Amino acid sequence: MFGTGLLKGLGVTLKHTLETFADDRGKVPDRYRDSIELGQGRRIINQPIDQEGLLTIQYPEEKRQLPERFRYIPMLIWDSEKNEDRCTACGICAKVCPPQCIWIVRDSDANGKPVTRPAEFYIDAAVCMSCSFCVEFCPFDAIKMNHDYELAVFDRYPQLVYDMEELTVPLEYYAALWPEQYAVEQEKRAKDEEEKKAQDEAKAKAAAAKAAAAAAKPAAAPAASSGGAKLSRAEELKRKAQERAAAKAGGDGESVPSPAASAAAADGEVDAKKARMEELKRKAQERARQRKAEAGE
User: Which of 87, 72, 77 is closest to 170 using CA atoms?
Assistant: First the structure.
């Protein structure tokens, strides 16, 4: 029947409304249980977010404990261990930002040469859409998402345009907001350092082996030269033996032809053989003509 679907939808909406505003005390504990005192009558309600039923928080005196993966606007990390900014002003975050709310100016040294640190870093919080693309694409873990959502001001400019001083937080602050993610990153960083150390050790061993091989080459060179001397000595003895044989043949009245003379003699024999074959061919043709003449042909 027409309208039954509409009635079913209204029934579902009414059911959810009643469940939302029902005071289910069996599932909603006392608001002050497991709360964190902030002083001056302020406290944080440290309770799970996914509770059913009505739970009123008296904001701003009471605040909900935010989950770790909550994100608002980015923040820059100051590495307290190395005492430097993690940001290298590579500009990847500004390139991948969908609303283009990040802009960076790279710093330079006294000679005007660019260096890997930002001189200026700005984020327009009024444009930021809290997508965390900048965090995902940053190769140096230099930018993270902050949990500070209380940024209400009367004027957009310049209050909502944050510079480096306002965006930079120490590494310990990030570790307190994102403990699980920080632990994973530290484990990965330690693993990468171990792999790099192993690679450096392997390179050092290879360089040492190459240096040892280069040092051993001069010692092997004399041995090679002595081998060459022995070979030259053998060739010299062979040459002298040939000269003696030639001299002996000359003393017996025989001449030992040189290689060039031997080649010329071989060519002469070939030419003579060709001439003889031509002569025989000519004589054979003359005899054939004589036979034809005698036969009357």
Answer: 77
